[in-house]
């Protein structure tokens, strides 16, 4: 079937069997740029909306076919069958009504935000029977920022949560799911409130606890404490190095559920404090924690990414797996886990390598990039 390349109108509305002719991506940072590159790799025309510098970088990377500023959002949205909102969360909430107002009745509007209840509520309140909104949250990311670090393979094997509301037509959810599956992600459907409850407990609470733990160390301002805090303390608090710029909108848009989790956690700390000399109680606490920890999947992207995994883009050539592992093992680095994430005939695939320490992972990235491979740290 020949693809329609006229981007001025939505000729073919999206469905589960036919990909859209044109997609608009609003906000060309790491996530928006990666969405754009992934979709263009599938032969889909991408209209980009962002600030001047990001648009310039996106053009240089070949991430977009056409560029518009934020003040031209309405024009850009009219050109596409699917719209991805990829700006920071609070800006996204102001962009959504504009996008919904000017989109056609066949357009699907979605987002990539880390919290879902707020933006889904906005969409529900503005429902007028025109464009369809489906919340989204891809469980993928990078330690780097900006479209210059965007990666078309970012979503391979990652869970991409969709949060359709009670008004969302099933055919629209199926169509968006098919588009997301085409870039290598795995789709999971969740209620937006449940999504935010889970995120508060397994992502937002641990982030704040890690920050407090590191700040408790900072209060001593002692190199002796810092030197002895290596190892387990460093591993369990690694997420404390996250930037507040990243977390500002997440914490403000999920504050009610985070408060609930902090109160519950505070009650558990108080109970622990009152029973710190009770050996039977302590044994029970440790035993329950041990059992629950064993139930966690050994490999899962989840809300908090694994520590020591890297992804390698593997060309479709004989002997590439042996060459990759050889480059690493020649330097005495042990690969603890290996998985072929995806394979596409004629294009190659993506290899996941797991390492015991972050140092081994970073050294392996350096070696593989030196050998000419495209590598990304998870």
Itemize the secondary structure elements and their pairings.
Blueprint (H helix, E strand, L loop, with lengths): L21 E5 L3 H12 L3 E5 L2 H10 L4 E3 L4 H6 L3 E4 L3 H14 L5 E4 L5 H9 L6 E7 L20 E5 L6 H13 L3 E4 L2 H29 L2 H6 L3 H5 L7 H10 L1 H20 L4 H17 L13 E6 L5 H10 L7 E8 L3 E7 L3 H13 L3 E4 L1
Helix pairs in contact: 4-5, 7-11
Structure description:
The protein is of the alpha/beta class. The protein has three domains: 22-190, Rossmann fold (3-Layer(aba) Sandwich); 195-295, 6-phosphogluconate dehydrogenase C-terminal like domain (6-phosphogluconate dehydrogenase C-terminal fold, Orthogonal Bundle), CATH 1.10.3660; 309-377, ACT domain (Alpha-Beta Plaits), CATH 3.30.70.260. Helix content is 46%, strand content 16%. It is built from 14 helices and twelve strands. The strands form two sheets. Strands 3-2-1-4-5-6-7-8 form an eight-stranded mixed sheet, with helices on both faces. Strand 5, helix 5 (117-125) and strand 6 form a beta-alpha-beta unit. Helix 4 packs parallel to helix 5 (117-125). The longest helix is centred in the middle third of the chain and has 29 residues, at 192-220. The chain is globular and about 65 Å long. The two termini are 37 Å apart.
């Amino acid at each position: 079937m020949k693809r329609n390349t006229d981007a001025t109108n939505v000729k073919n509305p999206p469905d589960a069997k036919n990909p859209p002719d044109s997609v608009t991506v609003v906000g060309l940072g790491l996530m928006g740029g990666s969405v754009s590159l992934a979709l263009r790799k599938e032969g889909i025309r991408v209209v980009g909306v962002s600030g001047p510098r990001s648009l310039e970088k996106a053009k240089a990377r070949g991430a977009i076919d056409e560029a518009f500023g934020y003040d031209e959002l309405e024009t850009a949205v009219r050109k596409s069958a699917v719209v991805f909102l990829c700006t920071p969360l609070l800006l996204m909430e102001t962009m959504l009504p504009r996008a919904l107002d000017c989109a056609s009745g066949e357009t699907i509007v979605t987002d990539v935000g880390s919290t879902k209840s707020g933006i889904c509520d906005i969409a529900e309140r503005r429902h007028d029977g025109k464009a369809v909104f489906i919340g989204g949250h891809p469980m993928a990311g990078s330690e780097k920022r900006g479209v210059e670090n965007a990666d078309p393979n970012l979503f391979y094997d990652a869970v991409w949560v969709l949060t359709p509301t009670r008004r969302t037509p099933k055919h629209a959810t199926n169509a968006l799911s098919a588009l997301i599956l085409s870039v290598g992600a795995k789709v999971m459907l969740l209620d937006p409130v449940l999504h935010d409850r889970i995120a508060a407990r397994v992502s937002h609470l641990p982030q704040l606890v890690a920050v407090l733990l590191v700040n408790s160390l900072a209060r001593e301002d002692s190199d002796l404490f810092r030197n002895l805090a290596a190892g387990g303390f460093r591993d369990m608090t690694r997420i404390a190095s996250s930037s507040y710029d990243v977390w500002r909108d997440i914490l403000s848009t999920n504050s009610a559920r985070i408060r609930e989790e902090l109160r519950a956690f505070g009650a558990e700390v108080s109970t622990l404090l009152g029973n710190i000399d009770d050996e039977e109680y302590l044994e029970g606490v440790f035993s329950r924690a041990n059992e629950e920890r064993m139930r966690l999947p050994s490999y899962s992207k989840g809300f908090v990414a694994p520590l020591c995994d890297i992804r390698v883009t593997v060309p479709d050539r004989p002997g590439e797996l042996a060459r990759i592992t050889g480059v690493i093992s020649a330097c005495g680095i042990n690969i603890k886990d290996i998985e072929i994430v995806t394979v596409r005939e004629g294009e190659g695939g993506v290899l996941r390598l797991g390492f015991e320490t972050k140092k081994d992972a970073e050294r392996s990235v350096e070696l593989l990039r030196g050998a000419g491979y495209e590598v990304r740290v998870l």
